[in-house]
Specification:
With about 325 residues, this protein is mostly helical. It has helices at about 10-30, 30-35, 40-55, 55-75, 80-100, 105-130, 135-155, 160-210, 225-240, 245-275, 280-290, 295-310, 315-320. Helix content is about 80%, strand content about 0%.
Amino acid sequence: MANQGNEKPEIGKIVRTILLATLVIILPGLQWTLFGWLHIFLPLVAFYTLGSNGGYTGKRLLIIAVVISLIVYLLLRNFDLFVFSFALLLSGYALFFSAERRDPPALSGLKSSLVLLSGWGIVLIILSFGSEVSIYGQLVSSLDEGIGEALNHYRQSREISTDTLVILEAALNQMKIIVPLIMPSIFGSFILIITWFTMILGNMLLLKTCGKAPWPSYQYWQLPEKIIWVAIGAGLFAILPIQLFRIIGINSLVLISIVYCFQGISIAVFFMNKWNVPLMLRSFFYVMIIFQSFGTLILLIFGIADIWFDFRKLKLEEVNQSN
């Protein structure tokens, strides 16, 4: 990717790149309910634009798209949403320059996630100015009210049996306690998933369109072994009797579990390719293991166990190459 920094793309490619980036930025502002989902592609737009055009040219193309989008958002009087979108673009920018430094996937993903977390944190602070309750507090209160309304609805329904109502009440009351505690990890999960999605798809697109990718194929990605100590520390925090430490530990465990699930998916991809599993059966398997709770647990177990068992024998290959 670094060699593309001095290349001058064609005028047609320049126009298409600017137009695509601008549309992805401004369409959610024009109609959020219809185009809000495009936000998850903003880091990918930044990463791919920089990777396919080089840092020098790609940065200028993105600046033009951002300036045009800023003008549109100012006309729409929706500057807050522009800042939210800009934070997503910055995370893609950080991911590209981390890849340029030849950082491994885990470190690149960490840097991009921290940039996005910082950006969104700044957005929440800006939106909370002049308000007695922060945006985060308002969101937690809204969720609590929503759970309470759902509980009242079930209580008034005549179609629900007494036994079912008792179970629902217990579950919803438990949610009112748990959801506010794990809200930071819920936000963090969104950030991790967006970063992971950007890295996987961006790596594939650059390999297919430019013949080069910053990282090896996803099936060969492996987390550093030292991360397991973070998980152990989070587990110890989670069982401490001090409330603050328990909250930190529980949220950290949720986030680390997601990271190890990503490694579990890479192991599944590796063996699917190794065994030449048909595409239809492979797609069905991916859906089952990702969207079923038992499948997610299997991914987590394999992701953690890979530290000791090295299912793909990647460490053995590194030793052989070094010799």
